[in-house]
Amino acid sequence: MNFRIRLASFFVAALVVMQGLTAFLVYRVTRSELIGEGQRQLDVAARAFAGQLDELSNRVSASVQVLAFDFALRSAIAQRDHATVVSALRNHGMRVGAKRMLLVGVDGRVEADTDGKFAPGAAFPFTDLTTRALEAPASAITAWEGRAYWVVVVPVSAPDLVGFIAAAIPVDDRLLERLQRQSALPKRIELATRGRDGQWHIVAQGGGDADVDVTPALAALSPSLATRPAVIEVEGREYVAQAVPLSHSQQSAPVAAVLGYSVDAALQPYRSVGAAWAVLLGLGLLVGLMVAFFIARSVSRPVEALADAARRIADGDDSVVPPSHDRGDELGQLSGAFSHMVQALREREARIRHQAGHDLVTGLPNRMAAEAAIGRALEASPSARAALLMIGLARLPEIINTMGHVVSDRLMADAAARIAPLAGDGLVARATDDEFSVFLPAATRSEAVSIALRFVEALSEPYRESEFTLDLQPAIGIALSPKHGGEASTLLRRAEVALLGAMGTEEPVALYDPTTDPHRPERLSLMSDLRKVLEGPGVHGELSLMYQPKLHLPTGRIDGAEGLLRWRHPVAGPLAPDAFIALAEETGNIRRLTRWVLGAGIEQAGRWQAAGDDLRLSLNVSARDLDDVDLPRRVAGLLAAHGVSPSRIVLEITESAIMGKPETAITVLRRLAEQGIELAIDDFGVGQSSFAYLRRLPVRELKIDRTFIANLAHSREDRAIVRSIADLGHDLGYRVTAEGVEDAYAVELLRDMGCDYAQGYQVGRPLTADAFLSLVSSTAGVEA
Ligand code: C2E
Ligand code: CA
Ligand code: CA
């Protein structure tokens, strides 16, 4: 049941109850008032009725007395002229209204009867009256032959008493009606006699409802009939009734007049009032109902509107405007509060959405938001040209590592501020911690490149704070749509691939090149092949280690090797590590691969040691392996298993791999060093590492990158670099190895510069274990 119906029903119920109560009260008061009125009327009527009977009796007895003095009658009596007597009596009786006249002898015997019912000589029944008549005319009511009579007895003297004349006036319906007409008697008069059975029998009644007998109901109340007004119910109608005992002859059964006052009849005039009231109530109800309905509606409409709005807002309908009501009442307050709430909710949601889609540091959209926006733009015009630029700051990982996030955040915000004004209608976003993406709708390749160059220019200016200046080293990768992809995620990834390419070169802007993309589908299938190889039993068949000799320059002996991984792919043939190492790193397979390399390499070292060959083996470890806190334990386990002393194993880590590494990686390196394993920095010189940074690490060897060695013979600059690295390295206690040594002259130069080891094709290509061993023994023989 909704609010409106409930409210309306309440109004109506209240109205009905109030009206009903009022009606009931009015009825009760009126009724008791009427009953009181009835009692008063009955009281008066009872007295009036007695008075009327007295008057009647006086009138009759006066008249009968006149007759008693009538000479003719007296002489007829004296002469016992029966016929004359009867006719005189009849004539006279008719005049006074006595239906029956009797002549009673002094001895109490009936001498004449106008009705002729008494046999001559029969006894007159009401002797008390004849006795009383000796003094004065006597009268009383009698129950006689089933009727009521008012009997008046008058003596006849001539001059001595000769008899009595008895006049019997029937107190019947007609008489009662006449009396009623003469005075204000109640409508209902009943005359009742008490029979031998003790019951009251009605012998006459006057007017009123002929079918209603009040006497039996009154007698039921009290057998002797109440002489005070009593309320009784007769056939569903209410009466106030009262008995008036009439003085009766002692020889007669008691006779009483019962007066009844009909409350219902008295209420009759009020009935029409009641009907009018009922009509009014009906009208009132109708009006009340309508008013209640309208009031309820004016209350419930706004509430329903609010509820409806709330429901739709809950269903996620953003277009809903909360209904506002310019009213001063509680509903107005409620709708005001509701609107406020909705607005606050929407603001908060918008804030959360903004936060979810934006980078807090730069205020730019984040990658997710950018991807969605780019996706929408591409979907809107799939064939249109567009370019996605990925801007990276190569130095950022190092800056974060050395200066912390507070500085790097400020730097990124500054970089964002430089990029944004140049982007035009492009969408600038922060793609990763150290990358921005700029989506340029409708940009051609050359436009994209020229905008990219402008970004590079803007970012080439170092970032300055009062105490320091930081070089950002920007690089930009570009992917073009639709050429390089029609989806946002593809474009982002490919721009990132291009960026990685740009970071490794002198050229700061690079276009995506599918041939170098590590995510190329064929490379991915290569990965699943590698995973199968690592999991399957055929590991040793497809994977192998080659050993590239290392020449100890001061002695000219080969006393070590670097283990280099080879994969003989069943379809693609022999694969160099460059073809799959980076991919294994990206796809999370590198740890397993390293595990295999360590196992194979340490096993080989164990064989050498067992054979008494004093050889050191260097193995390559990737940056991702340093996140593996289990690595030191595993290496220790392998050393123990193959009986290898730790000093025979060197682990090579590229310079870039340890830059910007978290503490856990450094802890792993320290653990390994504590076990006696030596660490070498691979590809030294091309990265950004400083000697100062390396001092924190337990490094034992530096391997100068082969780019510095390749032109050693021709480049003075390279010679200077290699010499200073060697000198500084020695000063700091490092062993120094030169990689990529391809000619004999370089070997001489390196020896002169004081390098410790030379590694390269000049010394020896990566060889199988057997080939390597024979090379070792042959050179050992030569030197010796
Ligand atoms: P790297 O550690 O710098 O290894 C030396 C690379 O230079 C080897 O290439 C080697 O064949 C090549 N090389 C040796 N002497 C010369 C020379 O005189 N001139 C020229 N131009 N090149 C020379 P490779 O075997 O293709 O390995 C490439 C890279 O793959 C390695 O660079 C290393 O970083 C990585 N790698 C190799 N094996 C493993 C491994 O088992 N685990 C891991 N994580 N990385 C490995
Ligand atoms: Ca290496
Ligand atoms: Ca190297």
Description:
There is one protein chain. With 784 residues, the chain is of the alpha+beta class. It has three domains: 33-267, Beta-Lactamase, CATH 3.30.450.20; 358-519, Alpha-Beta Plaits (2-Layer Sandwich), CATH 3.30.70; 526-775, TIM Barrel, CATH 3.20.20. 49% of the residues lie in helices and 21% in strands. The protein contains 25 helices and 26 strands. The strands form five sheets. An eight-stranded mixed beta barrel has the order 18-19-21-22-23-24-25-26, surrounded by five helices. It has a five-stranded antiparallel β-sheet with strand order 2-1-5-4-3, with helices on both faces. Helix 7 (263-314) runs parallel beside helix 8 and helix 10 (396-403) packs antiparallel against helix 11 (405-419). The protein is rod-shaped, with a radius of gyration of 69 Å. The two termini are 110 Å apart. It binds ligand C2E and calcium ion (CA) (2 copies). One calcium ion binds next to loops. The site of one calcium ion (CA) has 4 residues, from loops.
Provide the fold topology:
Elements: H1 3-68, H2 71-78, H3 82-96, E1 100-105, E2 110-113, H4 127-133, E3 138-144, E4 147-157, E5 161-170, H5 173-182, E6 188-194, E7 200-206, H6 214-221, E8 230-234, E9 237-246, E10 255-262, H7 263-314, H8 330-357, H9 367-380, E11 386-393, H10 396-403, H11 405-419, E12 427-432, E13 435-441, H12 445-460, E14 463-464, E15 469-470, E16 474-481, H13 488-503, E17 509-511, H14 521-535, H15 539-542, E18 543-552, E19 557-569, E20 573-575, H16 581-586, H17 590-611, E21 616-620, H18 631-642, E22 649-654, H19 655-658, H20 663-674, E23 678-684, H21 691-694, E24 701-704, H22 706-710, H23 716-731, E25 735-738, H24 744-753, E26 757-758, H25 769-783
Parallel strand pairs: 16-17, 19-21, 21-22, 22-23, 23-24, 24-25, 25-26
Antiparallel strand pairs: 1-2, 1-5, 3-4, 4-5, 6-7, 6-10, 8-9, 9-10, 11-13, 11-16, 12-13, 14-15, 18-19, 18-26, 19-20
The chain binds ligand C2E and calcium ion (2 copies).
